Amino acid sequence: xTCIVCGNxxxxxxxxxxxxPLAALNLPRTAEAAHDALRFPMNFHLCAFCGHVFNPDxxxxxxxxxxxxxxxxxxxxxxxxxxxxxxxxxxxxxxxWADAPAIDIGCGDGQFFSxxxxxVPESQCMGYEPGxxxxxxxxxxxxxxxxxxxxxxxxxxxxxxxxxxxVEHMDKPRTFLSEIAYWCGVYxxxxxxxxxxxxxxxxxxxxRFTDFLYEHVSNFTSTSFNTLFTLSGFETLExxxxxxxxxxxxxxxxxxxxxxxxxxxxxxxxxxTQKSKATVVKQLEEYRNEGPIIFWGGxxxxxxxxxxxxxHSSRYPYVVDSDPHKVGKFVPGTGQEIRWPDTxxxxxxxxxxxxxxxxxxxxxxxxIDRRGLLYKKLLVLKEGELCxxxx
Length: 391
Fold this sequence. Notes:
The chain has helices spanning 31-35, 77-92, 111-119, 149-156, 173-187, 201-206, 222-231, 262-288, 301-308, 361-371, and strands at residues 11-13, 20-21, 39-40, 45-47, 53-54, 101-105, 124-128, 142-143, 160-164, 192-198, 218-219, 234-242, 247-254, 293-296, 318-320, 338-339, 352-355, 377-382, 385-388. Helices cover 29% and strands 20% of the residues.
């Protein structure tokens, strides 16, 4: 059991609560349905490292999302004023985003973007919402689906992303946010990202255990909220608490530095290994036609070498090792018996010796020379192909 924000496993139990029914995503139509409501484990813990509060026993599977997906009261005067503060911030900086799509991830009933669309008529507002609330929205287009970063960032190339009161429902928030940061880097876009969640700071100080909801996997403290975005690949523009410190809002942009070179590194490594497999197999067949091949090193990275290049005992029977504890055993996967070098009589002037562990190559060369073993070629893997060893 590890923290879903920072990954540490020192977790402190916060409270003992009996299983509870859904309180924010279900409103029974009858007293009988209310009494028979499904109940769910309320096992909330506090991360000792980042201060995140979450329920490791949460599961999406049993939750009926078919109806009543948003029971939050959004019409209060102060709440409307809070939303207007955020709208005003976006309007003030509309030159940074209004000429490209703006996406509300999990837009619910659309109140926030309806206000934004009215304030900035030229904006290209759109929403993603898999729930039934999307059917009520008329002020901007809504896609009835989950937002998938790899697909949707490429499709729309937004300059503004908004995600309000959604992240606390995710059992893997860091995965979702990291994917957004990563794919923004791949597609070379840097949208402003506004994220809002309930703030648990007051609840912790005041012992308000009634603030726990099963639907809220996460209960963000100021520290854990900042930690989440730092670890997920974002640069913080502003983080503030609003509405009597009961919500926390952050403005972020993807920080390209964590991912800048790694896509190219991964692709380059993959292509190099594919080429190496074909090259080494071809080389070995050519050397095999010239005389015996002996592979030096049959366990650990030596065994990995033999397996990854498909060097099986039926075609390449000779494997030696200078560790007496390995002699007489067999290479896992490829089946060669591991032999003592001095007893193998195929060392000679027509023999090719392949060192299977490049990082031990100099030691092995010294061992071969000390034993006075004969060979034609001494090869080691270098930049994806077998090359003659030189120290």
